[in-house]
Structures are given as structure tokens and as C-alpha cells.
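Researcher: Structure prediction, please.
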Amino acid sequence: MSRKQMTRPGGRSARVQAAVHSAVRELLAELGRDALTVPLVAQRADVTPSTIYRRWGDLAELLSDVAVERLRPDGEPEDHGDLRSDLTDWAEQFLDEMASGSGRAYSRDALLGDPDGSNAGRCSAYAAEQIDTILARAVHRGENTPDTEAVIDRVVAPMMYRILFRPAGLDAAYARRLVTDLLDASAAGARQARASRQ
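Model: Predicted structure follows.
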């Protein structure tokens, strides 16, 4: 089993992960990223450096693992009663969090220490799960909805590209515009599909 597959350890393993993650967060806040070393983290977490190397491989992979955990949503998206409101609120919050200094740093760390792409997959799954929840609520209310991949392609992907490579002009209005364009295109597609069946 690879190190990356141990995402939900139990018992002693869970305690080690919690202690090491906590040590990383504390040391990042106190010393900054450039001063961080595996021996410093090990000392703060009260584990041996070999424990960290054995479990995470190197500092980049450890930082990636910590970043992915920090990017995990705290709970389900809020329910505002309709798809447009729910998706707009979620997109605005997603953009605000991911475009912040810490959000960009976590995104970079998550990708830098991710040689096999599994951490990127976990981050993508977090967003997809949130979107699935929003869309399932809308379906339950009888609303017409795009699919999850359409939301990722038309809302999440453009935001992440801009956050990473063209961060100017990122605000709530940008997130609202992406959602509006997606839902307008989805509604037009649904109308066209109904017309073709008649």
C-alpha cells in the first residue's frame, strides 16, 4: 500500500497524523514555509523524523497532505431553496476561500507534493461532492439541473485557472457570472431538448 492510500488512518496512526499535521500548521504560522524542515516538524509532533519519512516520503509530500486536509470542506453547502441561489453562494465562497493567500498556498502545496495525482483527485472529489449535494437538492425540488461535470467545467475549472494563473479581477461578481452562464446554457439546452421531442 502506498503512503497516499493511507488517508483515513485509525488508532496510533491517526494520532501520529494529527500530531504531525498540527505541528506543520503551527510551524508554518510561526516560522514560515522556507524555514520548515522534517526534523523541526518531528520534534514539535514528538515523533522521529524516520516516522515522517516512512509515512510521507519527504517534506513536499507532507505539506501536500496537510494542504489537502485544509482544503476539505467543513460541512455541506447551505440550502437557500433554489439551484441558482445555492450554486451562486457556493461558488462565491469557493472563490473567496481558494483565491485567498492561504487558499492559493494550500493549492500549490497540494499539487507540488503530489507525484501520482492522488491529492489533486481528493481535492477534485471535495468539490464534486459539494456540487452533487447542491444538484441533488435541486432535483428533489423538481428543478432542471446541469450535471456535476458541467459545473466543474464551467464554474470550478475557470475559477481555479484564474486563481493559479490570472488572479486579477476575481470577485463575487465573477463567480456569479460563471453560474449564470452555466444555468442559462443548461436551461437553453433543456428547452431545445423539449422542442425536439415535440
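Model: The mean pLDDT is 89.
Researcher: Thanks, that helps.
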